[in-house]
Structures are given as structure tokens and as C-alpha cells.
Amino acid sequence: MAYLVLARKFRPALLNEVVGQQHITKTLKNAITSGRVGHAFLFSGPRGVGKTTTARILAKALNCENGPTATPCNECVNCLQISAGSYLDVIEIDGASNNGVENVREIREQVRFAPAAGRYKIYIIDEVHMLSNPAFNALLKTLEEPPEHVKFIFATTEAHKLPATILSRCQRYDFNKIPITDIIGNLEQISQKEGININKNSLHRIARAAEGSLRDAQSIFDQILSSCGQQVDDSEVKRILGIIDRTLIESVAQAIISHNGEQVLRLVEQLMEYGGNPIYFTQQLMGYFRQLLLLKLCQKPDDLLEVTDEELAVLHTQAKDVSVPELIQLIKIMLENEAALRMTLNQRITLEIILLKLSQLKPLLPIEEILDRLTALESSTPKNYSAIHVEPERPQITDTGVPQTLKPDPAPTFTPVPKPESVPVQYSSPIKEQ
Fold first, then answer.
1. pLDDT tens digits for range 346-357
2. pTM (whole model) above 0.70
3. CATH match of 180-241 with 1.10.8.60
């Protein structure tokens, strides 16, 4: 039997099993229970958060032999065929490869016919934003008033590209990125079912690398298992993910905060020997300074930091030596120089210059201390304005010994214009004497 990847093997089969989207699953269950199911749905959100999975579960809930029900049995013929993708009345269409108006015309012709076996004929169009404008226009009337036995479910990662006329005809459900704690919990369940020995730090690194996508996290986990087997080593997880060791990032941050330029250069040398990417390292360092900023500003930042207990202890130690204005200035300088790092041919030297610039920043004084110093300076300065003597401006002396300011302006001279002399006019007769 062919190997089934974890993302497919552990795909949710019920609405309650969908991870991190309780605000959507609860609404759908209530709509099914109360019989208020719309004819068109739009599932939008990032990749790998459960849009297509939820669409298939909704199709099972509407076509289950015991339904419509919020909890399909997953045992009847309809549920099993929908899960396998072979059910005739659930048509899944890829919007990227079927985006022409002729494809929509086929849908318009097919919706007139009753379902073959189920209660509803359901069209699931993935990446619907890839449809052309003529295709959207051809779909409008059918989408607004479809037959009673037809349901449309659209899935997209870019809902802003859909025309307003399409959006107004759908019930929109926005899927969120899955919290890192929920991803870790899902990976722990998979580890227990598969008999995999992996520590919490490795699961945390996998979840953080997935950036809110459960499918990405399961795919990364699958790749790690292919390399490590049932016993997962933390160093192997770092190697596969290409993660720069966090201790190196912590050391660079400490060298910058301590204004130690020599240590910065030595740590960059370690980074290059490790084979790290300067651009990725800069992004990680900016994220680290952001964590310090959250720790300084928020009273309870634990839900925002997404770090382990050991990493949190290091953050608390370093946060004592840096102020909020300094952290803002550090992040601002890195953002301003990020484009230069991407465009340069010598990324190492550019990275060294950026980090040295950060390490040479002088500590910023709080505004309260600056005001106190100004107040003290004013109080120590004498305010006897009557003693101030202003030297009058003296007239400028020229070579003639007469002050220029007293020298009269020269009188204007007039040159008489000579009158033109009178010249006698001579006339000649055009008639010659005979």
C-alpha cells in the first residue's frame, strides 16, 4: 500500500476536529441544525488552515444519509465516497486551471439536473480568485438564484481579488492563522498515535516554522520523520529546518546592546561558518528585538512571544539593559537597511556594517531626564538682562575720511541732446528739357 502523508492521514473528518477555527465551525453547525444553510459560501484565509477540509465536511454534513446533520456519520456510502473524492454529486474544481468562461457555462448547464444520489449537488471551487472576469460575469445569475438542490462553496487565499458582485452573493467565512499552541497540540497527538519520541522544543520549532499553517507543520513533521525515524533528535530538526541557532541570535543581540563591536564581528564569522543566510538572520534578529519590545511594553506578553521558558528567561535578562526608544531605533535602522542587504553582491560586509552601526548607537536619554537637565541649566544661568550691553553699529569709514553713511549722494548729471542740423532739401524735376 502506498504511503499516506500525515496531512492526509490525519485530515479532520468532523467540524469539531478542525483546528483553530472554532468561530467558523460553531456557526456552520448552528446553521445546519437550524436549517438555515445558505446556497453560496466563501471560505477565505491563508494556506493550510482548513478551508478545503471544512468544505468537504460541510458537503458530508448535507449529504449524509442521516442528515442534514452537524455530525456526519463517516460510515455511510455518501460520507465514505465524499471523503475519498469519488462522490458524483460533490464536484471539486480547480479555479486556476478551469478559469475560462466556457468552464462556467458547463456548470450552468449541469446545475439544472437533479443530484444523482445525494440530497444536494455541491460545487467546491478552489482558488476561485483565479477565474477570469468573463467567467465571474457568467456565474453571477446562477450564483444568485441557483436551483434548490445546488450549493456553491468557494475557497480562496486572496478574497480581495473577487468582484464585489460575487462577494455580495456569498456568506463569507474568514479563516485565521492557527495559533502555535494549537499546532503543537495537534503534532503531539500525531506523535502519540504514531509512537514517535520527540521533545517539546522540537515541536515548538516545527510549529514556529509553519507560520500558522497546520498543513505546513504536518508536512515538515513528515520530512523530519523520514530523516530521523521514530526517535527525533533536536539537532536534526534544526538542520532540516535550516534554523539559525537561537543562542547565536541572543549573543548578537547582547553584543549590540553592550556596544561591543568586536564581538559582533566574531559572531558574524560564526554565522558565515555555520552557512547561515544573512537575510534570514536579519529577519530573525528583528523578530528578536520585537520580542524584547513586547516584553517591555506588555504586562502579560506570554501569549504574544511564542517562546519557550528558557528563551523567555534570556529575554527578561536582556530587557533590563535596553530601553523602549532604543529598541524602536534598532528595529527602524534594520528595516531601512534590509533592502540594501537584499540588493548587494557582498552580503557579509553589508551585514557587518549594519550590525556595527547598531552597536555604535549611543544610548538615548528619556525625555523626562532631558527636561530636567534643561530646567537645571536655566536655573543656574543668571537672568540679569540689564547688564547686557549692545555695541552700536559704527559707520563704515572710506578712504576719503568721510563716513559712508554721511556722504551725500552725488547729484545727477544731465547731458544735453544736440539738435539735428537743418539740411536743405533739393528737388529735381523728372521732365528733362528738350
1. 899 999 999 999
2. yes
3. yes
